[in-house]
Design a protein that fits this description.
By secondary structure, the chain is of the alpha+beta class. It has one domain. It is built from 5 helices and 4 strands. Helix 2 runs antiparallel to helix 3 and helix 3 crosses helix 5.
């Protein structure tokens, strides 16, 4: 899979989104984010896949390293997540994983669009 330039581009096709794990293969099985078989991503996995620094170590694996672009995108996402409040006005989600796994696809996409990532 070619790496898209934004999370919005990657996750705009709902079939490339997943929950409860960072990455899955085409059969829906959990795979390491570094696997070249990874084609479905949660929000955190998408952040790593799109904005992380990658170097290929073999035909089946890549090596991930954090990047300044990733840190910037993460900060934008977190700022948008903090804006989501429950009925009492309290912050509804505290992590990207909570948003992804409890908020669902539409909430993830709303945050990604608002963050411009």
């Amino acid at each position: 899979m070619e790496r898209p330039s934004t999370i919005l581009e990657l996750l705009s096709d709902k079939s490339r989104w997943t929950q409860h794990v960072a990455a899955r293969d085409a059969a829906g099985e959990q795979v390491c984010i570094e696997s070249t078989l990874a084609c479905k991503f949660c929000l955190t996995g998408a952040l790593w896949f799109v904005y992380g620094d990658w170097s290929r170590t073999s035909d089946s694996h890549r090596k991930y390293s954090p990047s300044p672009r990733e840190a910037e995108a993460k900060a934008k996402i977190k700022a948008e997540i903090e804006k989501i409040k429950d009925e009492g006005g309290a912050t509804k989600y505290f992590t990207m994983a909570q948003l992804n796994d409890n908020g669902g696809y539409d909430a993830v996409m709303q945050v990604v669009r608002a963050a411009g990532v």
